[in-house]
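Run: sequence + NAP -> complex structure.
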Amino acid sequence: MPNKQGKKKIKKVCIVGASGKLGRYMVRHALDRGYEVVGVCRERSVGKLDAFKGRITVVPGPTNDPGIIKKAVAGCDGILTVLIPWRIQQYSSGTAQAVLDHAPAGARLIFSCGWHITRDGQDVYSPGFKALLKAMTWFMRFIRVAEIDDQVKACRRIFASNTQWTVVRGSSLEEGESQGLPVWSRHIGDPILKSDMTRRIDFALFMVTALEDDGLIREAPAIVGCKTPSALAFK
Ligand SMILES: NC(=O)c1ccc[n+]([C@@H]2O[C@H](COP(=O)([O-])OP(=O)(O)OC[C@H]3O[C@@H](n4cnc5c(N)ncnc54)[C@H](OP(=O)(O)O)[C@@H]3O)[C@@H](O)[C@H]2O)c1
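>> structure
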């Protein structure tokens, strides 16, 4: 589906989860666009942002801490949030709630998640995908590594909010040079998504580009790399 370019003027953005791989790519894209950048990451991960020293402001702390988020998002026109389900601590839903509660009115809110999130139940998943997701959700919780279902809860809260949100649903990811802006569809099962692969740098590009794309407000685009066979075949 073509991206409609919108009009929202963005000057200052907050990147919540800035020290991860996706987060650091987003910092790069945001700086390339000339945005003022505030990054939030766990205290022990601040060093992972050393490459950007002097060019961004870092607010250290857990991303699900409302006080940290309130401080970090003040004055921001856009907030890019990496929703991650690690540990058994409601980290995704806590992070999403803090952003929803403290984002300045009218700010563009962009969240990341995976294809397993469905907004309207119209996504079509293969039986293998559904079985694997169910098993992984149970197993990761059992070994107390991750709460995949908490990411689902986080997204339900976002979908129900009346903010200017976009939830970007990433396919499987790989590293590598940028191939350009991914293509997207509203629903898993669309043949354009069949290749199920996106460069992580381009996932970040889609998130940052979405800040100024009003056509993506209250959408949950499922993305795939623009040079993958399915994207080339069905574009
Ligand atoms: N990986 C995939 O194949 C895939 C596929 C589809 C969608 N996605 C989505 O892409 C986004 C990022 O995925 P990614 O693979 O690229 O990961 P990533 O960017 O490397 O992000 C990992 C994040 O998790 C944080 N983290 C790690 N362990 C943690 C812990 N115990 N407690 C709290 N935070 C912790 C990291 O923070 P520190 O820097 O502080 O460690 C970092 O911000 C997520 O929204 C995910 O749902 C991923």
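>> summary
The chain has seven helices and ten strands. The pocket of NAP is lined by residues 17, 19-23, 41-42, 45, 48, 82-84, 86-87, 91, 112-114, 170, 172-173, 200 (CB under 6 Å).
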